[in-house]
Amino acid sequence: xxxxxxxxxxxxxxxxxxxxxxxxxxxxxxxxxxxxxxxxxxxxxxxxxxxxxxxxxxxxxxxxxxxxxxxxxxxxxxxxxxxxxxxxxxxxxxxxxxxxxxxxxxxxxxxxxxxxxxxxxxxxxxxxxxxxxxxxxxxxxxxxxxxxxxxxxxxxxxxxxxxxxxxxxxxxxxxxxxxxxxxxxxxxxxxxxxxxxxxxxxxxxxxxxxxxx
Length: 213
What we know:
This protein has six helices and six strands; from the N terminus they run E-H-H-H-E-E-H-E-E-H-H-E. The chain has a six-stranded antiparallel beta sheet. The two termini are 25 Å apart. A hairpin with a 4-residue loop joins strand 2 (57-61) and strand 3. It has helices at residues 25-31, 33-38, 44-47, 79-91, 134-153, 163-185; strands at residues 9-18, 57-61, 66-75, 98-106, 124-130, 196-202. The chain is globular, with a radius of gyration of 19 Å.
């Protein structure tokens, strides 16, 4: 049962994480403890179902070593702390880098009642990243940025013309990785990895549609 009587948000978490072969359910349950504790449950199994029946919830496919999350929980902005803690746990279990999308839907906003006025939903969106190493996380961040940039620029240019753009993105990530390696050698903790990073936004371009299955 959620800690909130009237939660301000419906929070949707969506992503797939490929896990190392030796990872078992108990380790996954411990890594995801911040989520199921936030939902007011005593175990991952008890919290695995989403607030919406049409969403698969939290599932682990042992044959594919795949953690699949399509799960909605009522909550507030303090859920971001649970997400940060979850990412730290999943970093220890992940085989490769993976993105996790998190959308905060304004639970009090009514699309129909708001027609014609200036009221906007307090929706928010953020990308979180997990991975076994900083390099793995940077790789998936780079791949997503390249995909988004090409999709945007192909409205105006042919894909064959965008090689220099991709090269420029690669150079930026190479520079970031060099800085990260240097900071780790000096004993400084890496920043901006294993948690929220990159895209986030509030109330722009209309409401983000829910995932359909």
